[in-house]
Known about the structure:
Layout: H1 2-38, H2 43-93, E1 95-100, E2 105-108, H3 110-116, H4 120-123, H5 138-149, E3 154-161, E4 167-178, E5 184-193, H6 195-264, H7 270-298, E6 304-307, H8 309-326, E7 330-335, E8 341-344, H9 345-365, E9 372-380, E10 383-390, H10 420-431, E11 435-440, E12 445-451
Parallel strand pairs: 7-9
Antiparallel strand pairs: 1-2, 1-5, 3-4, 4-5, 6-8, 9-10, 10-12, 11-12
The structure holds adenosine-5'-triphosphate and magnesium ion.
Amino acid sequence: MKNKISPKLKNIRSSILTPIAFLLMAIFAILFFYTPYMADKNIIDIAKEGSIIVLALVTYTSYTLVKREKRLLKTNDKLEKKLKNILLDFDKNVIASTTDMDGKITYASELFCKLSGYKKEELIGRNHNLIKHGDMPKAMYEEMLKTLQAGKTWRGEIKNSTKDGGFYWVDAIVSPVLDGSGKVIEYNSIRQDITSKKELENLNESLKARISKAIAEAQEKEQHMLKQSKMAQMGEMLSMIAHQWRQPLAAISSTASSLEVKMILKDIDIATLKSGIKDIQAYSQHLSSTINDFRNFFIDSKVLTKTSFESILNKTIQIVKTSLDKRDIIISFQNHFEDEFCIYENEFEQVVLNLIKNAEDAIVENSIKNGIIEIKTYKLNGKAVFEVFDNARGIDNALMEKIFDPYFSTKSKKNGTGLGLYMSKIIIENHCFGTLEAFNTFEGAMFRITLNPNEFSLPPDATQ
Ligand SMILES: Nc1ncnc2c1ncn2[C@@H]1O[C@H](COP(=O)(O)OP(=O)(O)OP(=O)(O)O)[C@@H](O)[C@H]1O
Ligand SMILES: [Mg+2]
C-alpha cells in the first residue's frame, strides 16, 4: 500500500513545482536579455512591454497550475477511494483491534465482531479482558504485557471466548504504537483464526491417547490370556506330575516297607540297609528332578536363550513322556536342524507342549490304536522349520479357520480352554516373528512353525 501511494505523491509535488520553477526561470531570462535593450527605451515603453510579458507569463503559469490542481484533486479522490476500500477489506477480512494503554478497546474490526459474537458498540469502550478465556494461563498475558511495554511486538496462540460462551483460537500479533517521542500510546492487534488447526491438533492428541490406551488394553488382555492358558497347562501338568511320581513313590514306599519288615525280623545287614537307603535316595532324586523340569517350564521369564530344537524337545518330551507312554503313543523326532539359535526358550517350549498335547488329545478322542506323533525339523531357504505331525484324522475343514481364535475349543470346558493355539500363534508370530500354520495330511494334522534363526542375537557378554 505504501509503495503504491508514494510515487503518486511525488508526481503531485513535482507538478506544482515545475510551473513555479518555469515562471521564475522565465522572469530571470527576461531580465537577463531585456536589460541591454532597456537602455534605448523610455520608461513607459519598458513598463508597457514588461507588463505584457509578465501578464502572459502569469496567465500561462496560472492556467498550468489550475490544470494541475484539478489533476491533483482527481488523484487525491482516487487515492482516498482506494484507501477506503483497503480499510473496508481490512475491516471485513482481518481480525483486528486497537486498545488504549489500559486495554480499553478503541477499534474492533467487523471480522473480530463476527468471530467473538459481539456488536461493534458492545466492544468499543470495553476492556479486552471481555474475550479472555479461562483456559489461558495468567502468565501468558503477563509476558505479553511485559513485551509490549518494552516497545516490542508479541506473537502467540490465544484461546478467546465468544459472547455465547464458546471459544475460538487465534494466532495473534500484538504490537505497540509509538508517538513521535517513542512513547507507547496504544496497542494494535491483528489475528488469524486457527480454531480448525487447533481442533485438528486436539483430535490428533486424543486419537494418539486412544490408540495408546487401546494398545495397552490389548497387551493387558494378551497377558491375561497367556496367564489363563498357562494355568490350564498347569492343571494338565499336575496330573502328569502325579503320573510321573506314582512309580518312584511306590518304589520308595515298597523299599522302605521291605527294610522295615527285615528290621522287624532282625534279618538285615548293613549292606542291605545301605543299598535300600541308596535306592530311596535315587528315587527321591528322580522326584526332585521331575519337579525341577516342571518348575523350569513354568518360570515366567521372557529371556532370550541360545538353544537348539534338540534341547527344547528333550525337555518337553521329558514332561509328556509318562502320559504318552500310558496311552501307547509313540513320539519320534527327526532333527535336521542342529544349529543353535536364540529364542525365548520358555515360551517356545510352551508352544511345543501345546502342539504335542493337542495331538495326544486328538489321538485319544478319536481312539486311534497306534497313535504316533512325529516331529521333524529342517532348514528351508535359511529358515528353521519345526513340524508336528499326528495320525488322528486331522481337523475338520470347516473348523480350520477357527482353531487359532481365542476360546475356540471342540473339547469339553473341563478339558480345554481353547487358548492353546491362540497363545501359541501370538508367541510365534508376535514375540518370535515367525509363522504358525495348520494343515491336514493324509493321516492327520500337521502344525508348522517357521522361524528366522537369525532374528534374535544375544549380546556378546551374555552367558546363557
Ligand atoms: N492335532 C489336532 N488334531 C485335531 N484337532 C486339533 C488338533 N489341534 C487342535 N485341534 C483343534 O483345535 C481346537 C483348538 O485348540 P487349542 O489348543 O487352541 O484349544 P484346546 O486344545 O481345545 O484347549 P486347551 O489348549 O486350552 O487345552 C481344539 O479344540 C481342536 O478342535
Ligand atoms: Mg490345546
